[in-house]
Amino acid sequence: MRPGRLPRSLPGPLLGLLLAVGVVTVSWALLLPPWQVPDENYHFAYVQSLAENFELPTGSGEPQSSEQRLAADRSNADQTAQVLATKPEWSRSAYERWKLDDRALAQDARGDGGGQNPAGGNPPLYYAYASLAYWVSWNGDVFDRLYAMRLWSGLLLLVTTAATWLLVGEVVPGDRRLQLAGAALVGFQPMATFLSASVNPDAMLFALWALVFWLGARALRRGLSPGLAAALFGATGLAVLVKATSYALVPAVLLVLAVALRRAYPARRRAAALAAIAALTLAIPIGGWLVAARALDRPVVNQAAATELGAEGVDLRQFGSYVWQYYLPKLPFQMAFPAASSIPAYDVWLKTGWAAFGWLEVRFPEWVYALLAAASALVAAAAAVAVFKKGRRAPLAVIAFCGLAAVGLIGGLHWVEYGQIVQTGAPFNQGRYVLPLLPVAGLCLAAALTLLAPRWRGVGLAVVLGSLFTLQLFSLGLVAARFYA
Fold it and tell me: What is the mean pLDDT of residues 422-441?
């Protein structure tokens, strides 16, 4: 294969990995009881409104249809959420009663929802994608459509995994074992599979961020062609149409464009063409959504408390104190802000970012998270050593690109949470909000494994795959015990 060319067929290790990730994702999709994923009930209602009525959720009426409310009530879904002592309803008699009640519903029971719900401010791209599965399973009952949408959503994790494989191969070329390790971290990460196997826009968010990371790294390593510029900035624009957190990608991709324009400056026409393509492919999807949202008189993004802070509500010293206490112990002179029994970075980013299922109430014992924290710290330290050892040969532009995206995402999340705490006293962040950075974590794992001699990398890969697969099995077992035991 010529350098810079994509393979015409899937490499064997990648194909095997995708098959394994597919099996695990299907297992999650079928094992999880209905609407036992954060906000899945609201996301389902959004899709149903779009698929049934071709309307985005509005501010009037019930957020969920009569059909969905009946199914949730009879399956005990709402009562089970976040209450460990409560189980879903699985009896045959309850199922038969639900079928009779479902048949007796009014003709418009599938389309009489569509009122504003907590997911209603999200842009519609993921929900339009999920509507395809809804329409395919149109003649099934509400549960058939839910599970069809989950399986369709799970395909996006394969895109995320494959894009991470390509990212690692672009930055750390020449060893398929490194690519397999980095991609496996993404494909087998428990929270990534849990969320991707549900009706949740995070599945598409992960896939598009992974594509942006790969395309950006490719542009920095090989140069930005017009086609690559269209793909990179188009993927960024589409990511914004999934969730507003994707605006964090804009400074990172602009860095890629700045590097490309600097390299292309002697050829001014080429530089102008690249800038024009980047601007158009980014502006068209975002601008189209902004115009549509204004025309429909609906919010452009989800309404977060931080967006409502006026200039008089901003206290940078207080914000800095909040960020300090998120990662480090409170200093004696600092006010407890937010009040926490421990460091939130560990409780939020690590615990709920690695493994917190159901509505985040299903968790491992504390020692499991201590092991995950130690493994995460070891990989991060080893990756830093690997970069240091490379010296001038380190891909500094790619590191800056990934780092800028990470700072944009995490900084934005902190600003939103700070605003919400100021106004309501309630925290906002969850570990899943930083999972778009998983491809970067896969790249760090691959970099860490370069410290091993080539003859030992196979052993390192085996440890990685074995550990991730074991964690997946225990995660599935934990969920099964929570909902079925």
Answer: 90
